[in-house]
Amino acid sequence: xxxPNGLSVEAAxxxxxxxxxxxxxxxxxxxxxxxxxxxxxxxxxxxxxxxDGDGRRLLDFSSQMVxxxxxxxxxxxxxxxxxxxxxxxxxxxxxxxxxxxxxxRLIAERTPGELDxxxxxxxxxxxxxxxxxxxxxxxxxxxxxxxxxxxxGGTETAVNLTGDPRRWPNDRGAAGVVxxxxxxLYRSQFHARDExxxxxxxxxxxEQVVAFEGPETIAAILLESVPGTAGIMVxxxxxxxxxxxxxxxxxxxxxxxxxxxxxxxxxxxxxxxHFDVVPDLLTFAKGVNSGYVPLGGVAIAxxxxxxxxxxxxxxxxxxxxHPLAAAAAVATITAMAEERIVENAxxxxxxxxxxxxxxxxxxxxxxxxxxxxxxxWALELVRDPATREPLAPYGGTSEAMIEVVAACRxxxxxxxVNFNRLHAVPPCTITExxxxxxxxxxxEALRLADRHTLP
Length: 455
Ligand code: PLP
Fold this sequence. Notes:
Elements: H1 9-26, E1 42-46, E2 49-52, E3 57-61, H2 63-66, H3 75-87, H4 98-110, E4 117-121, H5 124-139, E5 143-147, H6 156-161, E6 177-180, H7 195-213, E7 218-224, H8 239-250, E8 253-257, E9 281-284, E10 296-300, H9 302-305, H10 323-338, H11 341-363, E11 367-373, E12 376-384, E13 389-390, H12 399-410, E14 413-418, E15 421-424, H13 432-451
Parallel strand pairs: 3-14, 5-6, 5-7, 7-8, 8-9
Antiparallel strand pairs: 1-2, 2-3, 4-10, 9-10, 11-12, 12-13, 12-15, 14-15
Helix pairs in contact: 3-10, 4-10, 7-8, 11-13, 12-13
The structure holds pyridoxal-5'-phosphate.
């Protein structure tokens, strides 16, 4: 038997063992206590599946870091990267390059409203850094407001803007960042009983934060259109429109972080399209080219871009709009359009994943809530359905969560995991049969979670 990369299982195992040994000796891993981790080796990937170091196939319900929207090893994207490598591997950002120009056109064509100028970065965090820099230069104001329960990246400003425990060891306190609570009805900060009340009270809260911080000191409000790692909390009707109105009233720039939610993940090109709201700046990365080559960027409204018409923008990167990454974006966006991949994400969400996950929630007491859109779903696991006590504490894990995740993996499923949540975030290309395969494995694994849950 051979794997999709052409290696026999035996050869793949040998390669994996050597890679693991070298990794543990030389590779320093992100966000980890180096001695405590046992990273999984992946030797091959195809479509919705990956193969581990033992040659076992796993259904990828994580899309890795929620980035392989087009699935693994899409032949058109692989070919585009190969062709671009043969043509022109790299070129400095000050020169015009056909792959970059075309990628910018395809992105600008899809971003909401008039956002039609694209600044390319290497990934999501630096896209956020630059969006914030642009907002500060545009307004001449220092502060940025962002949500608790958010993730915006690992670089200095981005991690300080982040509203999860990864910020704490990096917190400067003086980064010009103020956090607020966004809407999250299941764990409402506002004692709301329904979505309308949650939306209204979350907006009142934000309005108060703006008033007490001093609107003339606030450059931007930054939020994920649908927060991803923090729990896939789809905003209730009216919330994003209310934030837009608040920004307009006070001359504050609205930055939508679509690094995780963009490029088909929610069943639309951008998550904010569900809410008919146009931000002033939009950050993207991940799904723009499914991470085949690192790429991110900022889509910029004309009035913000215009302040840099006759004055230099003070920022740049050696690899801004790197040809290999740009070619991968052109091929990805083109294939997504031709193969109706965004429509597939919407359809699988509506017909298979949404109803299937809700059905699991109805049968498993450990599932406190299911929420999401498209191929972007969270299962909130609880120890007590009445008090909603999470199955693992905020910022931590638990024996129960470790057991559930191990059961998923043993049965051939790779979910995305954060604290007490499992996220079902497969590629946008997933088929109905694959989605059902994942649901069946989750069904079995959740029995273990149920054992830790009060009846
Ligand atoms: N913003 C959001 C919403 C993200 O989900 C992430 C990464 O998960 C980032 C920013 C940071 O992106 P990167 O890891 O490419 O720097």
